[in-house]
């Protein structure tokens, strides 16, 4: 973290919503897209009452409609099949260009930003940090730093970053009651940020059941829409804990995986629709089949194929010497399989050499 970035962070923490318009091109273009809400469809013959019904269901953008199946739209209160067809026709007219050239897509990808982990070595491993518009998962044994990394990201996402990234707010979904605001204060102190402002920029919510966890993500959609690009990060620590409690035994596994898939699909859409980084933590379990395949590490993340496919980037954490930890890329679309060592310090995640 450079001096300049640190200094800037101290004064910028308060008003991210205002920053959106003055931001660099790619970021502001994306913000415009977010505010290009469903109301535009009124120009294509959809009546205002129907638009209100979409919004009541948490669908605020044209992309949001495209992300719903016809069946799902028909299930919404007050929307008949005929109305849904009319809405879908209007969407097709309002955003007709479904195919883009790779170059056009690369322009859209310019809005993607990376949130620093607090450790330059770990950032390097991840190609800059935790990426927006996708889900990053870390898994590992207890005390390996998953919750500490979650806390650190809530602070570092408020800092200015590369390519004109203005910094922004975070939402922390806590399923294990391990969120500690005092830790955020300590981490904010390390980055010379105003502690109160840093805490004000993190919205905390405790989830009690897997169903509640899903509802929270629905509510988060409303918050993201209303904030007009102010939020940059959603943390779910940990993603599987409640699913594990609510569904037990082999008999309930299929049901659990189906609900998990719905939850993750919702998160994935949110990350793309609102250009936020989604960071989830996961636990591990002994792999009973590992003995047969001579695997060096017989433990694996839980959640099965559903979670494996939903996470764009998967990182495994393990303990190193003292307070150091070793992160390894387990699965990534664009980063090679390699390792980085970092440390857990009073000021959050940092480089091992600084510990
Ligand atoms: P679990 O699976 O139990 O949730 P976890 O991976 O989330 O574990 P963390 O809580 O992130 O684990 O990490 C715990 C580690 O963080 C401990 O080793 C602890 O020593 C270290 N730690 C916690 N607070 C501080 C602090 N203020 N300063 C330095 N290290 C700390
Ligand atoms: Mg934890």
TrEMBL record:
**InterPro entries assigned to the protein according to its UniProt record, in alphabetical order:** AAA+_ATPase, Dmc1, DNA_recomb/repair_RecA-like, DNA_repair_Rad51/TF_NusA_a-hlx, P-loop_NTPase, Rad51_C, RecA_ATP-bd, RecA_monomer-monomer_interface
Q: What is its main location?
A: nucleus
Where does this protein reside within or beyond the cell?
A: Nucleus
Task: Give the residue ranges for region: Disordered.
Answer: 1-25
Per its UniProt record, what Gene3D superfamilies does this chain match? 5' to 3' exonuclease, C-terminal subdomain (1.10.150.20), P-loop containing nucleotide triphosphate hydrolases (3.40.50.300)
* Nucleotidyltransferase is among the record's keywords: no
Per the UniProt entry, the signal peptide is none
Q: Name one Pfam family in it.
A: Rad51
GO biological processes: chromosome organization involved in meiotic cell cycle; DNA recombinase assembly; DNA strand invasion; mitotic recombination; reciprocal meiotic recombination
Q: Which domain of life does the UniProt lineage start with?
A: Eukaryota
Q: Which GO terms describe its cellular component?
A: condensed nuclear chromosome
Q: Which residues form the RecA family profile domain?
A: 111-284, 291-354
Classification via SUPFAM superfamilies: P-loop containing nucleoside triphosphate hydrolases, Rad51 N-terminal domain-like
Q: Which GO terms describe its molecular function?
A: ATP binding; ATP-dependent DNA damage sensor activity; DNA strand exchange activity; double-stranded DNA binding; single-stranded DNA binding
UniProt keyword list: ATP-binding, Cell cycle, DNA-binding, Meiosis, Nucleotide-binding, Nucleus
Its family remark reads: Belongs to the RecA family. DMC1 subfamily.
Q: What is this protein called?
A: Meiotic recombination protein
């Amino acid at each position: 973290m450079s001096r300049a970035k640190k200094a800037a962070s101290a004064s910028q923490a308060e008003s991210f919503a205002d920053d959106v318009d003055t931001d660099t091109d790619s970021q502001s273009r994306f913000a415009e897209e977010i505010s290009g809400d469903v109301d535009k469809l009124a120009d294509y013959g959809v009546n205002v009452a129907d638009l209100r019904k979409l919004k009541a269901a948490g669908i605020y953008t044209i992309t949001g409609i495209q992300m719903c199946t016809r069946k799902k739209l028909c299930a919404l209160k007050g929307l008949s099949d005929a109305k849904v067809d009319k809405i879908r026709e209007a969407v097709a007219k309002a955003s007709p260009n479904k195919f883009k050239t790779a170059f056009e897509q690369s322009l859209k990808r310019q809005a993607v930003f990376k949130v620093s982990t607090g450790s330059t070595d770990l950032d390097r491993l991840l190609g800059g940090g935790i990426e927006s518009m996708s889900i990053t998962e870390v898994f590992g044994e207890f005390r390996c730093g998953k919750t500490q990394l979650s806390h650190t990201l809530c602070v570092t996402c408020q800092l200015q970053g590369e390519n004109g990234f203005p910094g922004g707010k975070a939402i922390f979904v806590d399923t294990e009651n391990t969120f500690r605001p005092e830790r955020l204060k300590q981490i904010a102190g390390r980055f010379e940020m105003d502690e109160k402002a840093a805490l004000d920029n993190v919205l905390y919510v405790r989830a009690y059941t897997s169903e509640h966890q899903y509802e929270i993500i629905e509510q988060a959609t409303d918050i993201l829409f209303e904030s007009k690009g102010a939020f940059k990060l959603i943390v779910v620590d940990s993603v599987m804990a409640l699913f594990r409690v609510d569904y037990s035994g082999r008999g309930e596994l299929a049901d659990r995986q189906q609900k998990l898939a719905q939850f993750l699909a919702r998160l994935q859409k949110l990350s793309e629709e609102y250009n936020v980084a989604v960071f989830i933590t996961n636990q591990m379990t002994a792999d009973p089949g590992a003995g047969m395949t001579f695997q060096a590490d017989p433990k694996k993340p839980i959640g099965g194929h559903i979670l494996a496919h939903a996470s764009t980037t998967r990182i495994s954490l393990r303990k190193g010497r003292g307070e150091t930890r070793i992160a390894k890329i387990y699965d990534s679309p664009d980063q090679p399989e390699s390792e980085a060592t970092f440390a857990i310090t009073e000021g959050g995640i940092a480089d091992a050499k600084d510990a």
